[in-house]
Give the backbone structure.
Amino acid sequence: MTDTIVDIKGLRKVYTGRTPVTAVDGIDLQVAAGQIYGLLGPNGAGKTTTISIATTRAMPTAGSVHIAGVDVVKHAAIARRSIGVVPQYNTLDRSCTVQENIQFHCLYFGMSRAESRTRTAQLLDQFRLTDRAKAYPQALSGGLAQRVQIARAIAHHPKVLFLDEPSAGLDPQSRIAMWEAVGTLRNEGITVVLTTHYMEEADELCDRLAIIDHGKILVEDTPAALKASIGGEKIYDLRMKEAARSETLEARLRATEGVTGVESIEGGLRVLAKAHDGLLASVVTTASEFGLRDVTTAEPSLETVFIRLTGRDLRE
Amino acid sequence: MPTAVANPSPIITTGKSLTYVRAFYGLLLRDLYVLRREIMPSIVRIVMNPLLFLFVFTYVMPHMTGGAAMNPTARMAAAGGGFGTVLLPGLMAVAIMFSGIAAVALPLAQEFGITREIDDRVMCPLPIAAVAAEKVVFSAMQGFISAAIVFPLAYFIPTPRVVVHVTSWLFLIVVLTLSSLLAGALGLTIGTSVQPKQIGLIFSVVVIPITFLGCVYYPWAALGKIPWLQYGVLINPIVYISEALRSALTPTTGHMGNLSILAGLTFYLVLLSWLGMKGFRRRVVG
């Protein structure tokens, strides 16, 4: 059995004010050591608030968070020794160079000057930042700044690294470089918890995922299992001229061999099926009689999982 | 799936207090390092105000025909060694106060509002209040440096010789320490309670009034003829800094009683530290 590094129980956060907002509404979550764990959900779902509480930067209204067995509310300062954080925005020290940023971070966490220098050199090399060591954060591109932030966040050998929307604002190339950098952390045994609203990112990086909406966990599993839960290998979205006659069509489609499910979508029907030769043709033939206008085919993605659970698009 | 690798760093096993001390030291080291890099602009900032003030009021004016008559406190100060003697502790007090604003309030206002750089330092293995306290201590160090830079200026520039008389070095060190910490706590309170876009306004609304009504350019005792003002200014923490330095360095000009001075400094140090740390916590913990 692997150890639980992040243990969240009954977490609630209500922002009081003129109109109180419940940002986190009873989240229970366990992350095992060594995993890359994703919190997937739209903006405003409560992901960042959950991370802020877990990293001691916000107080919960109710519930508890333990990081490596330490209560983050009662022993915040000690819990921080096990935590690395990369927030959404660039928090690099603008008065210090890249190298100094990492070196001072090491000193804050109690390393000697010699240890700090060695660790910094090693991290600069690992994250391919050595040639930018003397640069100031203002001179770095978004992707580079993000890499420096990750290097700095793991400098004190935290047990768990929290990444809040790590690819927000990154160009595709930087995003892939960031994914690689996060992937290498797995080899170091650092547990990673990241929030994202990009399905590809969650799918590519994470061992396990929790899909969050309105402050609640809707479902929690491996990306593969979540996609398999859709119940099909292929998705055909049929756009119909008249949605009114779709009930008969729905019944006919359900009877088609290989079809595992049919559900209504705006302007037509969605057919979930196990792929086999000729299936698309027979679906199209059947639907044509009922006024098929267009058909799109897709593989199940985390986005389909999300839409299925919430009826909404993840990007909204 | 890979299992957790044993943590190779020794820090996780160190005790709580040692962790705190090291983190505090690390933060202080960072601030001093950055200060050393920006030492020239800092010195210019510290020197400019007292230099011009002394030059105009204690060198130019006494050399002008009838210049002394233009100086309202000249007569009053004449007995104790000239306006320069009144100004020496006052200008040191202003320099100490400004160090609190420059070392804490301005950087904090920016870090809270725009860059959020403070977030990384708040993630140190150190209680939040200690992170705020580090800012105050760092500011106090700058306060000492500022006072040390202003002293020779205020001593040598004025034409009528300044009369400095230190009766107790211990008292001087105690009031310098309290004053410098107080200035840092004031900076912390301002820095955590003001939005960055209002920081300019703070100069007009807070910094200038507390300077002009802070017994900087006149001793508190000289306000005797305007009792409402004499008692009104007691809410101003700068009054105690000016009077403390007056008592420690230039007692001949007349000053507030030492006990009142120490009580005032301690009261404001505690009050502003409490307010500042509360504000700091509010700004960093959601």
The interface with chain A takes residues 1-5, 7-9, 11-12, 14, 16, 18-20, 22-23, 25-27, 29-30, 33-34, 37-38, 115-128, 284-286 of chain B (CB under 8 Å). Chain B has one domain: 15-284. The CA atoms of residues 91 and 204 of chain B lie 19 Å apart.
